[in-house]
Records
---
Amino acid sequence: MMTTAKWTEGSRLFWLLTLALAAMALGLLFPAGWSTDGYRLVIRATARTSLLLFLAAFAAAAAARLWPGAFTHWLRRNRRQFGLSFAMSHLIHALAIFTLWRSDPDTFWTLSNKGSIVSGSIAYLFIAALAATSFDAMVRMLGPKAWGWLHWAGVWFIAISFIFTNGKRIPVSGWYALPVALVLAAILLRIAAKRRRRVPAAA
């Protein structure tokens, strides 16, 4: 008999998170009648889930180094799954945006502009590249150095994109300062963990 604990590890965790994301999106769309309001609800909800999943992957190793324990080691052990789940969340986010554009272009262009589309497209290219190269076979194919540079550039571009995307909306609502603060905190966490790693080496 499969235990609950097994669903919190490895590929099962990814599929559990994917099912939860799909259920959330459908749960928002059905009551709204698959309308503009429903698509906007999904866009906002998946923006939040994407941020949380990205932060789990982005800060996992640093958290485990600074605060070793069962939870932080679980985060680090499953950061690939959180990264892939982030990609899935943002895929649903993109589908909702695309559907909004097709069904209500006036609202879409009121909420968006060409600059945000360009920067968002670059972020999506990085997300696709990171997801596609999250497997051992791709690491061997690219080589450790190229793989490392790709993932370093990708995660930092995405982190900065989250700061920029939410930061420009702070004048509209102060709540957008919260995701900015969370990403900045994760960046500081990584910097602190990197410094701690260097101190013993120097000593």
---
Amino acid sequence: MADSNTVHWHPSAAYLYVLHLDGPGLAWEYLRRNPEYRRAWQRHRRHPQHDALRWGLRLLEDPALNARDAYPDWFPDPASVVQVTPDANPPADALPFRLWRVPGRKHLMHDGKRLVLSTQLVNRMLRMAISPALEDGMAYAYAVRAGCKLIERWRTIEAELALLDVATVHLTAITTGRPGRASMLHMRTLQALDGTLAGASQRGVAEVLFGIAAVTERWYDDGDLRAQVRRMIRRGQTLMDGGYHRLL
């Protein structure tokens, strides 16, 4: 992502998937653009070592994969990760845990301590951390970490848990609302960041994002358009250099 001759970042359509990413997905998009992280990945491929925690990961993930294909294992778990444990005192009508009946396109991995399940439900990503003590067919419970942010953590996963109601969920009926301003800002910020990493000037970034005509008319040293592009690039660099942790 540092080749000044490439124009991979020009088509805005290539960034549309960003509009449907959640916090962990966006965090990965910023981290994978970090040149130092990309070098760490190359070193890891040649000489495997445990430096993933430096980046807030349990395991290093390939930065060539975008958030649609990557499954980074964050440490600590993002608030949206659903913890699934055995129910020590289940009622008579307790539901049995059936891993392969969880709806959606699934990705399963073991991070050395537990199974981590990611399942894609149309434009929603559900992440579950499954206790090693839980076996298929056992009664199960959802766990929320204790602490001063208990209510906030519960509200974060409440909508995710609703997707697991297999009696009412129909994948074709799951819809997402129109992307908000924050999603649009992330999309443009990532595109501007890619342009900067590719060696483009601020004006060059503005021409791709807003069009040559708009830049010709509105580009001044102290103009609002130049200030907007400058803020966008600075925001992208801040998120790339560690600010992505806030998105988790």
---
Amino acid sequence: MNRTFKLEAHGTTIQREFLSGLTSFFTVAYIVIVNASILKDAGMSQEASAIATIITCFLGCLMIAFWANSPLVIIPGMGENIFFSYTIVRALGFSWQEALAIVFISGVLYTIIAFSPLAVTLTTSISISMKSAITVGIGLFITFIGLQKGGIVAANEQNLIGIGDLTSPKTLLTLVSLLITAVLFIRNVKGGLLISLAAGALVAAPFGFTSWDGSNDWAAGLREYQHLFGAFSFDRVLTLPFWTAVFSLTMILLFQNLGTIQTFEKDKKKFSSAYRATGVSNMFAGAFGTSSTVTALESAVGIASGARTGLSSAVVGILFLCSLFFMPIIKAIPDSAIAPILILIGSLMLQSVRDIRFDDVTEYFPAFLTIVLIPLTYNIADGMAFGFISYPLVKILCGKGKDLNPAVCFVAFLFLLNYVFFL
């Protein structure tokens, strides 16, 4: 281990890396349950999606461990899974099999870009205001999904949407779970999200919302997963909406991973390897049957606990694989316990709003359109499109056309092209 991960050179020990890996795992383990719940809304088997999530996390963490020797953790992204279920499948009308093909191809494109200088060129050409706006818009979308799942907001004939039935058991349980989640987060409890899921399920049990017979039917789970593995469909690969979805997803992955890896991995050599590992991980995600993967923000917890090398990431990957033994618990977690996690994660993503340049109307107005239209159109791609198309227009109208660069104009042109042909 010392030779493989260069423990002495990094001033760390096997024990510290193992303990840090354990801490990281409990911080990100919630993704198995939450991701499976979101993919279920795309028509996929919840149990099979959980298996796909586990396998993808296992492979992603091992790749970044041995390829980059970095303590970062790779998991399906919150935002990417929302894009998968609610934009690609529900809004654009693709089947989940076609959505997996979109994930796979975006992973291929991302990997090609990651191995070329184009990665830095493309991501640095887009203004920080627009990149932050995408994060904030997705955060509001995730929060909206959480509020819906928990029954806090509901459809309203007069105003399209309004407050839900606050007297219903499901909504009350969501509010109780949200309070528990908030307290654990505020008190900085390690593994707080995982604890809140368990607490929410226990609170809901007496009301019949938590159902678990204690069985562990591996055969049934694996039979379901057989229909998920390698199930991507390329039937609509020659259509413009297909490539619009691929382009939008690739852009999201490039921006999010670049920012996260740059924040936590200062070693340039490790940065390049980690960035490429996330690209290959996304190809695995499409093949193994789950939504796109990213470098988890929760990696900061493991690093703060002392993680310095890929040994910590390898520990996280192995623990994910071990979580297969707890598969029956996946179906037992009710929406009232999952909704608060989505709301909290959405609120954390909202912090990126402070990076938007509100002193410049040519920056904040396109960012504003992106932020509001992602949740209001129920479509991440449409919100991004309006933002990127309006960006060069506002710049030119305000006499700041010299601020534009070819990459920004090309991105805007591609989004505009989609509307011209698709509408």
---
Amino acid sequence: MQRRDFIVSALMAGTTLGTGRAVMAAADGNFEVTRSEAEWREMLSEREFYVMREEGTEPAGSSPLDKVYEPGIYHCRGCDQKLYSSEHKYDSGTGWPSFWKALPDAIGTKEDRTLLFMVRTECHCDRCGSHLGHIFDDGPDPTGKRHCLNGVSLVFKPAEA
């Protein structure tokens, strides 16, 4: 791992450590799918809960979904909503699954100021509020966007033959 990649990964992994933030869905609004914290904890692993419900970040390069490029749809692990098509996926070289566009009406966004001196756009599932990752302005055409996602927030379902 290069020094720059290590520093970026360390910053990303530490974005919510020690904040004790409440479950995002409860704090940010009403979602079609809601669960109590206990229900979320029962259905998700510790890492999944940290990322999806406490707005954490998985380590770069830790998701097998980063290198999956077969045809299919990426769904929300929290509610099974269709979020991203494999047609919009690309290798960003960041170590996280990256897409240049989401499916229509699949995600919501909000401003994220958890990193000192940095404003990012956070994205979440529009149906259950689960944290997915962040959107940056350094992606490919035609949108110029990079939806940099946590693989633990996603379930890949291959296209039927």
